Amino acid sequence: MSSAETYRIPLYEDDFASDPHAAYRRMREQFGPLVPVDLAPGVPATLVVGYEQARRILGDPMRFPADPRAWQAAIPDTCPVRPMMEWRPNALRSAGSEHARYRAANTAALDAVDQHALRFLVEKVARETISEFLHQGSADLLAQYAWPIAFRVLSELLGCPDQIGHRIADGMAKIFDGVNATAGNQILAQAVADLVALRRHTPGDDVTTRLLAHDTRLDDLEMVHQVITLYGAGIEPLTHLIVNVLLRLLTSPQFSGDLHGGDTSVREALDDILYRDPPLANFCMSYPPRPVDFDGYHLPAHQPVVISMAACNTDPSIGSALGNRAHLSWGAGPHSCPARGHAYLIAETAIHYVLDALPEIDLACSPDELLWRPGPFHRALASLPVRFPTATA
Length: 393
What we know:
The chain is α+β, with helices and mostly antiparallel strands and 393 residues long. The protein has helices spanning 2-6, 14-18, 20-31, 51-58, 69-72, 82-85, 96-111, 115-131, 142-158, 162-177, 181-201, 207-213, 220-234, 236-251, 253-256, 263-276, 309-313, 340-357, and strands at 9-10, 34-40, 43-48, 138-140, 282-286, 292-294, 297-299, 305-308, 362-363, 385-387. The strands form three sheets. A five-stranded mixed sheet has the order 1-2-3-8-5. Strands 4-10-9 form a three-stranded antiparallel sheet. Strands 6-7 form a two-stranded antiparallel sheet. The longest helix has 21 residues, at 181-201. The radius of gyration is 21 Å and the shape is globular.
């Protein structure tokens, strides 16, 4: 273990972003299923790249709780990954009875979303979004399609007007990128506080109002952080789930010859991306409150343990025993994503719609020319340029 104590693999550099799966292979060869990494300069963590180890950690909230307060006490406010990882009074960053309380409120508010109405909303937003570039012959499907769908659909579900929603999206993007993350955190918190105040004064038929009305009686601070969590899970990861699937459909021989083969092709591509290239590649952080000896690996107290869903899903030690739908990309255990059905429906509907609207769509550059955004958490393109005949309009 001496090499693990003297060398840590940086997850924030361009080389990692350009080919993470090659990096995961090297990690396994050098360290095994638990890997010493740096999430940012001087911010150590353990990255779990073994599927079985990840399942055990995710299912053991006593030894691996999600509360980061002891860790962040030694982390400066200026640390670029702190806003993504710091404690908030929400289910994602809490343990025990606090987690159960927040989880109950979120689950109830999300379960009340009408799935048929949600599909109709996505189709409406997709139609309006495509109409803005349909006659141009080219588009960036990230900035001009996937992001507006994720943003507009989520804002509608949360009862958030555009002027507040744009501030929320700006703050969230800064946090995910780790650039101006502290400023992004402040922008985000104030914008969400304005949304909560609006819905307290003017209730609606939306997730925010249902959270406010829940029996847990969330106060304003707790409400802000429930909504921040929903936006964090609902804009950036959903945007890049749509984009990563579209890229796979446009470039993979398995799918590109049959873009319009019906539900099966899109669902297979969605499952394939969630299995191999999930938009939230490294996440599900936990913070052991005391040192842990885990399969012969020493895990320090209060140091993050991060699950690499992308690496665990493709762990060669489990071979073909893991099917595409047994992946960890929605998490597992008590902190698994409560909105997976909503996200899957939104992504599938959005992908179907653009393929139907633009039947002769092609990537507008070589796949090698696409840029992947650096960062320890996401698998995210900077853009997805495409072209299509204007005659299809």
